[in-house]
Amino acid sequence: MQVTWLDSNSWLWELADQRVLVDPWLVGPLTFGNAAWLFRGEHPQPRAIPEGISLILLSQGLPDHAHPPTLKALDKSIPVIGSPSAAQVATDLGFTQVTALDHGESHHHGGVTIQAVPGAPVGPTTLENGYVLTDQSSGLNLFYEPHGFHQDTLKALAPVDVVITPMLDLSLPLVGPIIRGGKSAQELANWLQPQVMLPTANAGEAEYHGLLVSLLKAQGGVEAVRAALAASGQTAQVMDPQVGDRLQLPLTPRTAALS
Q1: Contact in structure between 182 and 167 (CB atoms under 8 Å)
Q2: Cα separation, 216 vs 69, whole angstroms
Q3: Residue 203 placed within a domain
Q4: Distance CA 81, CA 225 (A)
Q5: How much is the pTM?
Q6: Does residue 126 lie in a domain region?
């Protein structure tokens, strides 16, 4: 299993001969609505769109996960799997093979099974998606949720070999945490007993501007999580990828190939 962090929440995962592009923001600025004065993200250098994409996986329908300019630049024949809100964004943009997954539902693509699990709350009524992806040939699996929100029903899926989760806490005055990192990462390590953990939602090379950025409070990070896991006797290897580096994950299959 190989993973490449493309900055922010964007990833390319390679498993079971599939190349899965996750929550891509690669083209143009990142804004919410037309409020660039409130929040604007930019890549200092253009981001190349990976070649040979087998599948696009979207965890949320918000622009930092289902980024319209990036999705517009992608081949509309590439299959898309997403939360219901993300699937609607992809459909509206002209993708022709779109699958919406509710919590607990699964979809098979190539040799990969994608199961949707409860993720982050967005607004008063919407609960977006996290995912567990399983390589059917090796039995290796991966959990991803980009905001550090998960439910204890996830325990039933343990063990999970790779956990990709925030390791930094971000909060806003009067609103509270919008990304839950440190405590959430430790909880996932206890529940899922992963071999490898990687951070997401970090600001690698991306630059952020606007009023909202000035109000954000950040705490924790990779080193804090690594120290906390070591202190509690956890054996997960916490890796800290750099933008664009393709990592071969040091994994040992725990099960025989799945039927």
Answers
A1: yes
A2: 25
A3: yes
A4: 30
A5: 0.95
A6: yes
Highest mean pLDDT among 121-125, 140-144, 148-152: 140-144
- Per-residue confidence (pLDDT) for residue 255, from 0 to 100: 56
Residue count of the chain: 259
Of the chain, the percentage scoring pLDDT greater than 70 comes to 98
Q: Are 166 and 147 in contact (CB under 8 A)?
A: yes
CATH of the domain at 36: 3.60.15.10
Residue 189 belongs to some domain of the structure: yes
Q: How does DSSP assign 174-219, residue by residue? A: TTEEEE--HHHHHHHHHHH--SEEEE-SB-SS-EEESHHHHH-EEE
In a domain, residue 134? The reply is yes
Q: Write the pLDDT tens digit of every residue in 61-86.
A: 999 999 999 999 999 999 999 999 99
What is the pLDDT at residue 175?
A: 79
- Which domain does 81 fall in, by range? 2-244
Phi, psi of 222 (to 5 degrees): -60, -45
Task: Give the Cα separation of 201 and 168 in Å (integer).
Answer: 8
Distance CA 67, CA 257 (A): 35
> For the chain, what is the total number of helices (H) and then of strands (E)?
5, 19
How many Å apart are CA 219 and CA 97, to the nearest integer?
40
Q: Total domain count for the chain?
A: 1
